[in-house]
Design brief:
There is one protein chain. With 405 residues, this protein is α+β, with helices and mostly antiparallel strands. It is built from ten helices and 21 strands. A six-stranded mixed β-sheet has the order 6-7-8-3-9-10, with helices on both faces. Strands 11, 12, 13, 14, 18 and 21 form a six-stranded antiparallel β-sheet that branches. Strands 15-20-16-17-19 form a five-stranded antiparallel β-sheet, with no helix packed on it. Helix 2 runs parallel beside helix 4 and helix 3 packs across helix 4.
């Protein structure tokens, strides 16, 4: 086992393209850290630099506090599991798993057999040891590739999108197996994926990259609850967070009230702020303004409002829906998903939604709500949508940073 540190690591390719920019990352001994981001964000390049398959342009990589920039890959004692399995088609499962050990003269045959047998037992490959790769399913081939890495007893595992070639059902199964295997072995692991569901379910921590720049590193639930910026907010979550161009205004003293134009501007007071988008207004609870004191600086200014689909519900199914937390929207589409229903509502505001949020582009889009399947809402109806205002997120429209302190 080992500790891996990337200190201001960058990678520039010939022609000036920057794949990774000043990446600072620490992977603790025994930790499973997931590098996640869209295609081309630099995550695989970062992994290959740790493995020694790509040269580092600047910065330093440490393994157990030892700089390894100039160390050959075979001397780093790291095992890599690739997307494409990379099995020898003419060798049996046993020989594929034993291949790297057979070429190490220091490993006796008895030890090779012991390690392969143990890995086969852990991965439930014992009945398949005499088969060739062509006789295996995709999941079995992936387990063989993992077994080949395990028998080496390396300091760390590096996994480059190992499940991307599997079908959806098998991917879920293998994801659980990898998580259990890593916990039982306790081997330091860096796992690369573009699938944020894999990232959230596998990693003890998740590191999000975009255009080679680290956006946030946090435990999965911390990242879900407190995304650092618009990119993370739009990337983590399925469906992604609704991100809406809005304005933060001072609240009124009551129905028809004129507000408190000469007040102190304290957003946590009885006349706390309202977030306005299109023809809609939502009151911001004192709990939220207390947690986000930085909101006080944005009174009277534009912001980006964030609300997750699962924090929107059908007010008709609620007994006591607070009127200050309900907005009326036309239903454009209803999608049945079994355990829940996705309701797409039209909204009279510019919305940063889905992939558009990842590219910092605004579009007139829909607000997606993830609702109880008992809702009767259908296309063409007017929906009364309840918003969990205690779960609202706020972002600076210029920097994209989350507004907190």
């Amino acid at each position: 086992m080992s500790r891996i540190v990337l200190d201001a690591v960058s990678k520039q390719f010939p022609g000036g393209a920057t794949a990774v920019s000043s990446l600072d990352l620490e992977v603790s001994d025994g930790e499973l850290l997931v590098l996640v981001g869209p295609s081309g964000c630099g995550k695989t390049t970062a992994l290959r630099m740790v493995a020694g398959l790509e040269e580092v342009s600047s910065g330093t990589i440490y393994i157990d506090d030892r700089p390894v920039n100039d160390m050959e890959p075979r001397h780093r004692d790291i095992a890599m599991v690739f997307q494409g399995y990379a099995l020898y088609p003419h060798l049996s499962v046993y020989d594929n798993m034993a291949f790297s050990l057979k070429y190490r003269r220091a490993v006796p045959k008895a030890e090779v057999k012991k390690r392969v047998s143990e890995a086969a037992r852990i991965l439930e490959l014992e009945p398949l040891l005499d088969r060739k790769p062509r006789q295996l399913s995709g999941g079995q081939r992936q387990r063989v590739a993992m077994g080949r890495a395990i028998v080496r007893q390396p300091r760390a595992f590096l996994m480059d999108e190992p499940l991307s070639n599997l079908d959806a059902k098998l991917r879920v199964q293998m994801r659980a197996e990898i998580a259990q295997l890593q916990r039982s072995l306790g081997t330091t692991t860096i796992y690369v994926t573009h699938d944020q569901t894999e990232a959230m379910t596998l990693g003890s921590r998740v590191a999000v990259l975009n255009h080679g720049v680290l956006q946030q590193v946090a435990a999965p639930q911390e990242m879900y609850r407190n995304p650092a910026n618009l990119f993370v907010a739009g990337f983590i979550g399925s469906p992604p967070m609704n991100l809406i161009d809005a304005r933060l205004e001072r609240g009124s003293s009551g129905p028809g009230g004129s507000g408190d134009p000469g007040g102190s501007g304290d957003p946590g007071g009885p006349d706390g702020p309202q977030v306005v988008f299109g023809h809609h207004r939502l009151g911001v609870p004192a709990q939220v303004t207390a947690e986000r004191p930085g909101l006080a600086r944005y009174l009277g200014r534009n912001i980006v409002l964030g609300v997750r689909p699962e924090h929107l519900s059908d007010a008709a199914l609620m007994r006591d829906a607070d009127a200050a937390s309900v907005i009326e929207l036309p239903v454009r589409l209803r999608e049945e998903l079994g355990s829940d229903v996705q309701i797409h509502c039209g909204i009279g505001a510019m919305v940063h939604h889905g992939e558009a949020a990842l590219q910092d582009v605004t579009s007139l889009a829909t607000l997606v709500a993830r609702m109880d399947p008992q809702t009767a809402l259908a296309e063409g109806q007017q929906a009364r949508v309840h918003v969990e205002t205690t779960r609202l997120h706020f972002f600076d429209p210029e920097t994209g940073a989350s507004i907190r302190g």
